[in-house]
């Protein structure tokens, strides 16, 4: 299966969003993110892409190029949703460590890895924070998360605060179910999402309080009707044994109300006992979509963790935190292109092909000469390595500079049998 042809067909679907010069640079960035083997700085992306443009076209494409990264993200979401029928959104935040105080959006945030005995040692990191949206889709073989949208969080400005970034993204995507971690369990967030027509699925905090629906009064009185009934005791619910992921668990479900959300929610409680001598452990999730069945709710939230592994793959394989630009506009465009490259890499492996079978992990390992690793499914590292082997035909690019200077005289020497599917741009 020639995956480069599939990559070309996906790229051609984004052709209308750029002029000829910017589209060539867009292709060069995508191939640079896929083929680079180091941190993923602009210089390394330029050398890995084997582009025929001058080096300074790359930073100019980020700072002054006439293209809209939000429009690219919205079109990517529509493209993926047109391929897969079953999908849900996943929203989370990630951080990138930086140094210096001249970059836009830098701020301090706590590092809880230093936490000992529940007392934080007041150690901070200095860096950027991003709000990111992923699209979790049911592919023919597995559940797969595509990173589709990312925005820089700058707490110093009203326009780029955390809630403002989430509001901006949710206002531009089609209506659907959005998965959150318990850090987003706030009434302000839920009211905003419900106002845009979205449903939410969120994990409850350890101190969350839920109430039963109030019973209709026998003798109605004047005034507003009662919203909250008696407080719910999760230990007294009726639990049923269900199999989840080849494991049996006791699950209870109840229609309740909570002060975190303005509408009634479906609460699902999962309890497990690690040892007979230990007490039960409770795991609570709730959703505003009352049409979802209990197995669907549990399955959706089980796959929410894929956005965490997607952040790790973006930083390790696609240079997400390797940018060397300072302006807010350039940073947003750089990380968005990193998201697009990661989604394209997953798409060409997961797109259903009527006449061809999907590539198995065993075929990828045989092609790469890996005999000591037997994965059950394709990882992002294997996908990138397989694509690099196809692009370079078994050998990496050899890069060199004609002058020992950090200028636009950076050149690349590519082997004669290496061809990349994008044209020359001035």
Can you lay out the helices and strands and say which pair or pack?
Blueprint: H1 3-12, H2 20-35, H3 42-49, H4 57-63, H5 69-83, E1 87-97, E2 107-110, E3 124-138, E4 143-153, H6 162-170, E5 177-180, H7 187-195, E6 199-203, E7 211-212, E8 240-244, E9 247-257, E10 265-272, E11 281-287, H8 294-302, H9 306-317, H10 328-350, H11 361-368, H12 380-392, E12 398-401, E13 410-413
Parallel strand pairs: 1-5, 5-6
Antiparallel strand pairs: 1-3, 2-3, 3-4, 6-11, 7-9, 8-9, 9-10, 10-11, 12-13
Helix pairs in contact: 1-10, 2-3, 2-10, 5-10, 10-12, 11-12
Question: What would the keywords be for this entry?
Answer:
single chain; 426 residues; alpha+beta; Transposase Inhibitor Protein From Tn5, Chain A, domain 1; eleven-stranded mixed β-sheet; 12 helices; globular
Explain what you see.
With 426 residues, this protein is an alpha+beta fold. It has a domain at 69-209 and 257-269 and 283-354: Alpha-Beta Complex (Transposase Inhibitor Protein From Tn5, Chain A, domain 1), CATH 3.90.350. It is built from twelve helices and 13 strands. The strands form two sheets. Strands 1, 2, 3, 4, 5, 6, 7, 8, 9, 10 and 11 form an eleven-stranded mixed β-sheet that branches. The protein starts with a helix and ends in a 13-residue tail after the last strand. Mean pLDDT is 84; it is low at 394-426.
